[in-house]
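Supplementary Methods, section 5.1.

A reviewer requested that the exact input to the structure prediction be made available. We therefore reproduce it here, unchanged from the version used in the analyses.
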Amino acid sequence: MAVEREKFYECEVKRRRVKATGGYEPFWKVKMIADALVDNDTEFRCKSCGGPLKVFRRNIENAPPPHVEHKLKSDSEYCAAGMHFLKATDGREARPSQSPVH
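The structure derived from this sequence is encoded token-by-token as follows.
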């Protein structure tokens, strides 16, 4: 029996932009995973809870397209987009990650 996995095809990636006063500042931008990989982005976080994500870059025939999933089960259990949160029947409320990526 196959294990059901959480899959997100969109997340936030860390980018940088020019500040009005000079220099650069970091910011988070929502992107599709496939586009982020083509652009060589390296820092990813969940767009719902801000938690760390694991990237799956598979380019194998019949495999799912590039995607991410929560690294921490606790994030999936309390993230509004998390598989474990969506399946929960105990009335829990969504919350930000307790280990957010800054």
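Residues 10-87 form one domain. These observations are discussed further in the main text.
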